[in-house]
Design a protein that fits this description.
mainly alpha, about 50% helix, Arc Repressor Mutant, subunit A, two-stranded parallel sheet
């Protein structure tokens, strides 16, 4: 399985209300130093329903999101309250 497929599979399994960092996803996919690649994969995917909003930066900030960081924060806050 190629790295991109591993990343997408890992992100798809992040449960509602939980998050992973780009680095944690990279480590789980087998390449600890590829956290920027994870960010690029999250930025460029077109898979409807993939919970890419659950992937955040190691410092706890939200990072980029296709619909804006504010929207990412709103979605995560709603999921955590459930």
């Amino acid at each position: 399985m190629i790295f991109k497929q591993k990343v997408l599979k890992i992100v798809a399994k992040i449960p509602k209300g939980k998050t992973m960092t780009y680095k944690q996803v990279a480590i789980a996919a087998g390449s600890a130093r590829a956290y920027r690649a994870v960010g690029n994969i999250m930025n460029r995917h077109n898979i409807k329903g993939l919970p890419c909003h659950r992937v955040i930066r190691s410092n706890g900030s939200f990072g980029r999101y296709r619909f804006g960081a504010k929207k990412k924060a709103e979605i995560l806050k709603k999921e955590i309250k459930i």
